[in-house]
Amino acid sequence: MYQSSLTTVECPQTTSLNMSDLTYGEQTNRNNLTDHHMSGDELVFFVNGKKERIAKSHGSQCGFCTPGIVMSLYALLRNNPTPRMADIEEAFQGNLCRCTGYRPILEGYKTFTKERSCCGGKGMENGCCMTNRVETKGYTDESVNSTSVLPAPLYNPADFLPLDPTQEIIFPPELMSLCKGQSSQQLRFRGERVLWLQPASLDQLLELKTQYPNAKMVVGNTEVGIEMKFKNLLYPVILAPGYIPELNTIQHTDEGIVFGASCSLTLLGDVLKAAVGKLPLYQTEVFNAVLEQLRWFAGLQIRNVAAIGGNIMTASPISDLNPVFMAAGCKLTLMSKGGERVVVMDEKFFPGYRKTILTPEEVLLCVLIPYTKKGQHFAAYKQSPRREDDISIVTSGMSVTFAEGSTVVKHLALSYGGMAATTVMAKNTASRLLGKQWGEELLQDACSSLAEEMTLHPSAPGGMVTYRRTLTLSLFYKFYLTVQQKLASEGAYIEGVRDDYISATEIYHQTSPSSVQIFQAVPDGQKEEDVVGRPMMHLSALKQATGEAVYCDDIPLYENELYLCLITSTKAHATIQSIDTAEAESMPGVVTCVFAKDIPGSNMTGPIVYDETVLADDTVTCVGHIIGAVVADTQAHAQRAAKAVRITYQELQPVIITIQDAITHQSFFQPVRTIQRGDLDQGFTQADHILEGEMHMGGQEHFYLETNVTVAVPKGEDGEMELFVSTQSATKTQSLVAKALGVPASRVVIRVKRMGGGFGGKESRSTTLSTVVAVAAQKLKRPVRCMLDRDEDMLVTGGRHPFYGRYKVGFMKSGKVVALEVTYYSNAGNSMDLSLSIMERALFHMENSYSIANIRGRGYVCKTHLPSNTAFRGFGGPQGMLIAESWMSDVALSLGLPAEQVRRLNMYIQGERTPYSQILDHITLDRCWDQCLEISSFTQRRAGIETYNRDHRWTKRGLSVVPTKFGISFTAAFLNQAGALAHIYTDGSVLLTHGGTEMGQGLNTKMVQVASRTLGIPSSKIHITETSTNTVPNTSPTAASASSDLNGAAVHNACEILLHRLEPYKTKNPKGCWEDWVNAAYFDRVNLSANGFYKTPDLGYDFETNTGRPFNYFSYGVACSEVEIDCLTGSHKNIHTSIVIDVGNSLNPALDIGQVEGGFMQGVGLYTLEELKYSPEGYLFTRGPGMYKIPAFGDIPTDLTVSLLRDAPNDKAIFSSKAIGEPPLFLAASVFFAIKDAIIAARKESGLSGPFRLDSPATPERIRNACEDRFTKLCPPAEPGTFTPWAVVV
């Protein structure tokens, strides 16, 4: 259970157990497949079909999440060998993936379901939807010269091994017997700080509760484990009543169904579903409401262990179920040694925050969920940032009972979560509505009363005050309409719900997604062994699926290895007065503490400018600033001791947190960058209209599945050290570690096997951890390891820069933009890091894809007291382009023209110049645009949306098409270089090393493909082990989307050198094979090792003169997206997306499409979901998946088409390919502007028109607040400046 606390075990009635066997309660580890010491053959057999299908369907990129997904499916198939697609989607509700975009995972596993045909079950009879079409060159053309093409598939499902449930490995017998034994035995576990007791009977439980009245009761540990780990709470005594029969019983009574308090939520749902299927409809409305809440309650893994009693007793003010139980008047049976009592769960049950009316000696025995009666109507609602597996913002249970044969309210119960420190009842409103007819007058009274009763202080924890207050009205309105519709259908004398209002009563049902991927097949005549251009599987995919792939923290422990935990600042701007380590150093297992004085070399660090400290010396400049570290024998001991270090501070002023703070205090890093072209004054004079506006775009957490990790191993002589690091920048890590240790870089070796995701977050910030770990290892002369927990990683590493943009745009009546002045402000945090380069790229993309004759952009990099923000996929481009699309949208709105018309009018054409004077050649933007409109059926889709919006008042649909032009190269010219090293061994095998790092993008796979074609040998002969600084020196970071271009060319160069050396032997023996030529060369004493090198030619840009060529070439793409918003709650669903993107001649269509889909979904998170929330003092609230939400399986577009533009070779990169990593992310802006399009339709219903501000991300809160109506008017926001907000926009 608590590995950190329980190290010895006392089992009075059982044999002794080791606590390593009892780590239950932690989330499934990605390596859980190997926990039972199966042989390799057994392991492969164990997950045979599951791992094979996720790998071959290209559903594993970085692979860190893959074993967990495999195990979720394994559990499903063991229980249901022929699931429906909906079952698979439910099974994955507790799983997250940051790389793939989810589509290939679902598609690969769809082959296990009843809906096996392609295209989401929409395929033709007898197989694939491509059957009986005309095929040419691997394409399936529906008509000559048509862009509506369907390709040969990325994989062939016929190649999959069949599923044979009878051949699955059995559940481990020792665990089975252990579980059986627990049901009848009392267990007692004693650890360093915690006593764990499992009573065998109810009497024993009551006796123990009397003996330990403050003991915490735990069944599923879904709450207590989190409290102990993240809230630093300690429960010295824990009672585990999960196996007591009385707490697990289920009884059907005349009043309802009684559930024992230990019944799991999964069991609760199963029983209620069965009851709904058997009982009359009128009796099951409460049951259906509970089932609706359970549908979105956490994930299946949590529901399998979480108990109904735990959900109640946790007393969470945002509980999904407690409002339902309160509105239903559920009865709770409480018991102690003194007797039994029954209480109704009402407004008195929760007297305060996280408190109930139970006495310390009492336990919750069971819960009665009642039947509904005739004349009673019941519903439950939940609104959360993300629909699946998310905590609620506001949740509600509502019940109304009418006088017999009438529509007069006899009883009303309205319960809300998220509106106070406890779940509350709207008593005043309910009382006020008694005796009234269910109609418009009642609705008006209810809304005005709820607006008065359901108030929140503007500084209330959780923020979103206006939105939460509005939700109480909106959810009641949904209930009102639902009841009105039911009454009308029952024949009551009441007006039915208007047809255009009915959508407000509909329950959300997810549609299984369908998809199409279009790519150009290899040309006729290409040799079978030439894998370039083919959808080759990621080389590590199978290993990743079985859990055999080795990540940094999988490296076995070294002898005498120690573990490090960081000590971080709790103040944003302060001087350190004192540090007291006495308590920490006295704790078990602690070896030492490390502070700035222990650094043998320089304490100054930074990727470009040395303006940071490895360890804070006397001043801290952000919450999370690393002050020191504790080194101990285990992770648990190190973490516990780190929390015991006492630091006193003298706080300093000012504390600058937001961009607006920085503007006020003029807190900027230098220089301020400017790009200008044309005559701005003349442009504005020429313009028919001038428009000004502003926009804020929030930051983003990288949320790589593998957090930052380093293992440092001193070599014992000459100051040598070897580090295993999860980093994108091996060379930068090497140089900064050497600098801190005070040794030459040649004494430090950095090794990178693979990363569990990077996205830019491990380009520069990973060095922050590596240097600290290296210093500790140097001090102790022992190996030291540290892998950050998620909350630590999010606290100290920074993320994507928040941006604020102001713009002034001049344009003609036609929509042609003739002048633009834009100013960007980025929140850099407390150090420069890469922020200047990020701002430069934002300026390089300030016009996105539009030709503007007169333009000026200026960028200010704000210095604030936040952890330093850093590189993130797109590197400033997504911020610059989003603000560009914002003013483009405003232009269209102000003129009343279709946005797509204005965008197309302003788009670049061949030969035009950018604001930085680079001429655009080989431009494919127009082709991408036209094909995207065609494959998305844009015209028909727009017409359908207009019809839909006329027919629906409370849901609206929107459509947007957005282009992108992304420059490819590092903007720092010196980084555009790469090296490679190739060895040929005498058996003909090839060992390849290059300067890039593998983080899931498939770089190693592409490099093997390049080497295979160049050498003319099968890819199976080529192997890549790792990236290391002692094989390829002075490497550039794996970033800027340029790694395939740079390293591919270097690999090509190395292989050509080797081919040149082998040429004489091929000439002498033309009928020989590869091995013959290699051996002949070896015996002739020819060097079979070669270094390759490449630098991108003709690059360089001067900001002072606005001359030069910053980019080698551009990648182009266009996306069209359709969404539907709920105007009452702000929720949205992604209905359709079509993407056309120019990747040149794809090196690997499967990997490239994976990058498109993964980048797009990461952008969907950026623009619609992910929100970092900081307190005014700079404390990050969103420090884990509980509060920070990335897209889940249910967020992908229901209909997704990705097309790689055909016949678009690129002569500036290896084998005519193009970069793919970053360009697709911005295409998710099409979803953002589709949402804005839907909001426009909603605002039109309220008589509002013209431009309006919508900041990013377009969260449910922002969407709802923008859809102004009579409900929002009842809940006006507090006046800014009159209160201190819970969270600030940074």
From TrEMBL:
Its EC number is 1.17.1.4. SUPFAM superfamilies: CO dehydrogenase flavoprotein C-terminal domain-like, CO dehydrogenase ISP C-domain like, CO dehydrogenase molybdoprotein N-domain-like, FAD-binding/transporter-associated domain-like, Molybdenum cofactor-binding domain. It comes from the Eukaryota. It is an enzyme of class 1 (oxidoreductase). GO terms for molecular function: 2 iron, 2 sulfur cluster binding; FAD binding; iron ion binding; molybdopterin cofactor binding; xanthine dehydrogenase activity. The active site is at 1222 (proton acceptor). Keywords: 2Fe-2S, FAD, Flavoprotein, Iron, Iron-sulfur, Metal-binding, Molybdenum, NAD, Oxidoreductase, Peroxisome. GO terms for cellular component: peroxisome. FAD binds at residues 297, 320, 364, 382. It catalyses: hypoxanthine + NAD(+) + H2O = xanthine + NADH + H(+); xanthine + NAD(+) + H2O = urate + NADH + H(+). It is found in: Peroxisome. Its cofactor is [2Fe-2S] cluster; Mo-molybdopterin; FAD. Binds 2 [2Fe-2S] clusters. [2Fe-2S] cluster binds at residues 62, 65, 97, 99. Substrate binds at residues 763, 841, 875, 971. Its main location: other. Residues 189-374 form the FAD-binding PCMH-type domain. Mo-molybdopterin binds at residues 728, 759, 873, 1040. Belongs to the xanthine dehydrogenase family. PANTHER family: XANTHINE DEHYDROGENASE (PTHR45444:SF3). Homodimer. This is xanthine dehydrogenase. It comes from Oncorhynchus mykiss (Rainbow trout).
